[in-house]
Amino acid sequence: MADLYDEALRVLRIESEWLEATARLAESTFTRAVETLARTDGKIIICGMGKSGHVGRKIAATMTSTGSPAYFLHPSDGIHGDLGILQKNDVALVLSKSGETEEIALLLPCFMRLKIPIVAITCSADSLLSRAADVLLPLPELKEACPYDLAPTASTTSMMALGDALAMALLKVKNFSSDDFAKVHPGGTLGRKLLTRVSDLMVSDSLPDVSESAPLTEAIAVMTAHRGVCFSTDAQRKLNGIFVYGDLGRLMKNRANVLDLILGDVLIKEPSICCKEELAAIAVSRMEELGITSLVVIDQDRIPVGILYLHDALQAGVK
After folding, report:
1. Which residue range forms the structural domain that includes residue 28?
2. How many CB atoms lie within 10 A of CB 232?
3. Of 16, 120, 182, 224, most Cβ neighbours within 10 A?
4. How deeply is 71 buried, as exposed, middle or buried, from its count of CB atoms within 10 A (0-12, 13-18, 19+)?
5. Which of helix, strand or coil describes residue 150?
6. Same domain, 30 and 68
7. CA 54 – CA 60 distance, rounded (Å)
8. Are both 98 and 211 inside the same structural domain?
9. Residue 85 domain-assigned?
């Protein structure tokens, strides 16, 4: 079966060569292409036939989800009535390896009549599409990964990569933030990750606040009632330190008798903390990285307002 893996390597090397060549070719016109797409007050109309059309649908979805409203117009549907979707303030992104696809050729006069700027992605610099385009993002004229140089493979990979690059550049131009992203992805795991804040999951009732001067036995009793964590505050109610079951276990390994201690003797003075406005996913990541199961939630004055437990966050689907 080694020959099958060799085939995989051959394809991946060819596609890598295409991507490297595409990056070099894009250098002179990529910025202008982004500026053209960003300048519109309307939609980005994306067109492509066959495999290029499948790539176009994905690019449209990526742009729409990252702050650049885009609509995929199938060229066949366009020349049979769907051109009504076009408006004068739109811009077109047209994908065609040859640049001579019949259905694409029939659409170009419609774009030009409405003065819709055209950004083209094509291999042929002398094609009908290239000549009609306001900005050309050229693809290299190399052989496909298909051994017969027939099935669109490496060319569609390069189209897809250019589409992603355009979408991310537009995101940057439009200052599209993670909060903006969350607003258009409210459902599923992604929505939970982007929308759930620490304040949505933290426990804020009867917090395990124990005086520094309290016997360690009292602190252990409070920890037991609060899932293995307690903390102490100073005279201004600011967080002074925490103590958890893990600290107790380490302490007992190194000391024969711990029950004669007070909480102030064993407090962790610089604990990991979080704020209630923080994304829960970030807080969960911090807990998993540090190997801990809870975080004290503080306000802007460092006053504890809650406890975030890892178990609660994971149960809520935040990972």
Report:
1. 2-176
2. 22
3. 120
4. middle
5. coil
6. yes
7. 10
8. no
9. yes
CA–CA distance, 162 with 33 (Å, rounded to integer): 11
CA dihedral for 65, 69, 75, 77, sign (positive or negative): positive
Closest CA to 37 of 157, 125, 162, 123: 162
| Exposure string over 27-46, b if 16+ CB within 10 A, otherwise e | eebbeebbebbbebeebbbb
User: Quick check: helix, strand or coil at residue 267?
Assistant: coil
pLDDT in 10s for each residue of the chain, 319 residues: 668 999 999 999 999 999 999 999 999 999 999 999 999 888 999 999 999 999 999 999 999 888 899 999 998 887 777 788 888 899 999 999 999 999 999 999 999 999 999 999 999 889 999 999 999 999 999 999 999 999 999 999 999 999 999 999 999 999 887 667 666 655 555 556 667 889 999 999 999 999 999 999 999 999 999 999 999 999 999 999 999 998 898 888 887 788 889 999 999 999 999 999 988 888 999 999 888 999 999 999 999 999 999 999 888 888 7
CATH number at residue 120: 3.40.50.10490
Q: Which residues pair with 239 in a beta bridge?
A: 233
Same domain assignment for residues 172 and 220: no
Q: Are residues 158 and 202 in the same domain?
A: no
Note whether 53 and 125 are same-domain residues.
Answer: yes
Q: How many domains does the chain have?
A: 2
Phi, psi of 103 (to 5 degrees): -65, -35
- Kindly state whether residue 188 falls inside one of the protein's structural domains: no
Residue 182 lies in a domain: no
| Amino acid found at 174 | K
SS3 letters across 153-219: CHHHHHHHHHHHHHHHHHHHHCCCCHHHHHHCCCCHHHHHHHHCEHHHHCECCCCCECCCCCEHHHH
In a domain, 191, yes or no: no
